[in-house]
Amino acid sequence: MTCARSAGILLALLSPREGARPRVARAGSPRGISSAGRALQWHCRGQGFDSPILHHVPFRAPFRGAEERDGRLRGAPPTGAGPNERSRMTELAHPDRLQKLAALRAKGRDPFPARGVEHEPIAGLIAAGGTLEAPGPRLGTKACIAGRLLTVRDFGKLMFAPVLDRTAKIQVGFQKTRLEGWWEERKLLDGGDQVAIRGELGRTQKGELTVWADEVLLLAKTLAAPPEKWHGLVDVEQRYRRRYVDLWASEGVREVFVLRSNMISLIRRFLEARGFLEVETPTLHPIAGGATAKPFVTHHNALDSDFYLRIAPELYLKRLIVGGLERVFEVSRNFRNEGISTRHNPEFTMLELYQAQADFRHMMAHTEELLEHLARTLLGRTALEFRGKPYELKAPFQRRRYDELFREANGCELLDRTAVARRAQELGITLPPRPGASAEAHHWALATEIFDHTVEPLLEGPVFVTHFPTPISPLAKCDPADARYTERFELFLGGMELANAFSELNDPQEQQRRFEEQVASKDPEAPGEVDLDYVQALEYGMPPTGGLGIGLDRLAMVLANQNSIRDVLLFPTLRPQHSS
RNA sequence: GGGCGCAUAGCUCAGCCGGUAGAGCAACUGGCUUUUAACCAGUAGGUCCCAGGUUCGAUCCCUGGUGCGCUCACCA
How far is CA A378 from CA A13, A48, A260, in A? Predict the structure, then answer.
C-alpha cells in the first residue's frame, strides 16, 4: 500500500500552480443554511445548484410515487426488515442502516435530499486554522463543510468524527449542549454518510483543529457498511472493482489519481505553450495500423463493416501533418487485445505528438524537458524512487545505440544472421512458426526477441536507446549515414519502455514498400493489409516530421511510484462478474 | 494461454491431526464532555467461493469449476 501523505501535499497536488494557497470560499454566511435555532433539516433555498430552469419548476413534493416505491423497496419498517425487503436489496445494504433509513423517514427527514449545500473546502479551513503555537485567523469563526463522515467516536455527551471532502479531512466535534434538539438523532448517523456541518472553527484540548457543530444535515444516507477503518480495502480485486470505496477508504489512493490528472493537465499546458494543437482522431479504424499489436474487432451495423479499435493514433495524426496543422498532439486511449500484466492493460492512454520541421532529436529534447518539468512540478524534485530504486529525471538522459547494447549483452553482431541464430538457441528462444516468412524477417524477429530478453530488463535508465534497425521500424526514416538503422529511439526506465519516437518516414514509395514487407513477414500482429489511404496521404507531401509517443499510464506509475499499472487506472480491466 | 498462490462474519484475519466456527474492527444495547485505531460491559451476525467425490462425519483431503493476485510469454 502507499504511504500516507499529508493534507499539504494533497493540496499542492490539487492546485499545482497555486501551491499551498487554496482559494477559500467566502467566509460569510453560506446561503442555504438556516441560521435560526438548531435547524434539524435545512430547506431548499437555492443551495448552490441554482439555475433558472430549477427556479421555474413549481414546488411540490417531488417524486411521490417513487418515494412510495422506495419505501417498500428500501425503507424497511422500524421494527426490522423482513426477509422479502432484504432480498430485494443488494447484499451490501446493511439491515441496521435500512432501519435507520426508515426511522429517518418516519421523523420526516429526507435521507436523500435533492439539493447539495454551498460550503467551503476543508483544505482552506486547515490552511487558515494555523498551528497551535500560532493560531490562524479563522479560529472562532463560522465554517460550513460538506463531505463524507468517517469513523465516529461517541462519548455520550460528546462525539468526534472526521469529515472528508475532495480537498482534505477535518475533525468535527458534536457536543450535546450545542445540539440539544438534534442529540438523539445522532444515532441515526453512520460512518460513511454524506453530511454537511455548520459550526465554529476551534480546537480540542489536544490541539486538533475541529469544527464544533451547530447544525448537522444529512445529505445522503450510506446503506452499505464501509470497510474496516484501520486497514481500508485490502483485497486487491475489491479495490479495483469498488474503486469508489477505495478512493476514500484507503490511504494514499486518491493522491495517486490526483497526481495522474495533474500530470495530464501539465502535459497539455506544456505542449500548448510550444504551439501544439490538441486534436481527436478516430477510435474506429478500418485497418489497425501505427503499431504491431493484436486489435479488438467490432462491427458497425448500418455500414455492415468490421472496424478495429485503434491500437495507435499515429497514422491519423500524420495525415494531419500532411494537412498542414504542423504541430498536433492527442491524448489517446488505445486498445490492444493482448495479455494483462503489471505493465499492460487492454486499454491504455498514450500521448502522441507530431511536429513538422523536426526530427527524432527534437523529440528527444521534448521528452527530456517534459519529464523533468513534470517531476519538478508534481514532486518538487527530479530525483525519484520507483519500485524501490532511485532514478534521476534531470536532463540530459543517457543515450545508447541499439546495436551497441545488443553487442555488449550478447557478444555478437546484430547483423550476423548465423551468430544471432546461435545466440537464440543458447537462450532457448524460439518463434511461433510463420509459414512463408523470409529468412530476413525471421532474423529480425529473433534479434528483437533476444534484445527484449537480454537488454531491456537491464535498462534502468532513464536511457534513450537509439537507432533501431530498419526492418523493425516500418514507420521511421532511415539514418542518412547508414540505411540499416533508423532515426528512432525508445526511452527506458526501470526496464520498462516509456516512450517511442522517430523521424517520420515521409517517402510514400518507401512507405508502401515497407508496409508490403510487413504484410509479407506473416507477423500475426502486423496489419493484414497495406494502408493505401495513408500512403496516398504521403503522396501529397508530408514535411520532415518528428513524432513521439509516451505511455501515460506508465509515466504515472513512475511519478506516483506505483508498482502496477492497475494502481494508476481508476477502473482497470477485470473479468466481468457473473450475475448468477 | 502456462506455472505458483489465495478465497472463512459487512471489513481485516485466525482455525492444530477430518468431529458443523473464532478474534479485532464495524453494527446493536448500556455507560462515559476532549477522543483521534477512544475505552468499558453486553448482544447479534456464517451458503466456510461453487459443484461433485472419499468418509460414520469435510472449512480441512481429492477432482473439476469460478474469481483474483503474482509470475512467464507478446505488446507500450
Answer: 7, 32, 9
Sign of CA dihedral A326, A474, A366, A342: positive
C-alpha cell at A291: 503499431
Q: Helices A439-454 and A402-410 sit at what angle, rounded to 10 degrees?
A: 70
pLDDT band of residue A435 (cuts 50, 70, 90) is: low
Residue A86 half-sphere exposure, CB side, CA atoms within 13 Å? 10
Nearest-nucleotide field for A204 (CA, C1'):
B34
- Chain B positions within 7 A of any protein Cβ atom are 1, 10-13, 24-29, 31-39, 66-76
**Model confidence pLDDT, tens digit, residues A455-481:** 887 888 899 999 999 888 999 999 999
Nearest residue to B37 via alpha carbon and C1' = A230
Residues in chain A: 580
- Write the Ramachandran bin of A207: left for phi over 0, alpha for psi from -120 to 50, otherwise beta: left
Question: What integer pLDDT is reported at residue A342 of this predicted model?
Answer: 87
Task: Compute CA distances A135 → A129, A138, A532, whole Å.
Answer: 6, 8, 71
| H/E segment holding residue A84 | helix A83-87
Cis geometry, peptide bond prior to residue A121 (ω within 30 degrees of 0): no
How many angstroms separate the CA atoms of A257 and A263, rounded?
A: 10
Tell me the three state secondary structure of residue A472: helix
A469 DSSP 8-state letter: B
Bridge partners (DSSP) listed for residue A486: A478
Nucleotide nearest to A563 (CA to C1'): B70
Q: How far apart are CA A449 and CA A469, in angstroms?
A: 13
CB distance A368 to A352 below 8 Å? no
pLDDT of A206-251, one tens digit each? Answer: 889 999 999 999 999 988 888 887 777 888 888 888 888 888 888 7
Distance from CA of residue A493 to its chain's centroid?
A: 20
Amino acid type, A181: G
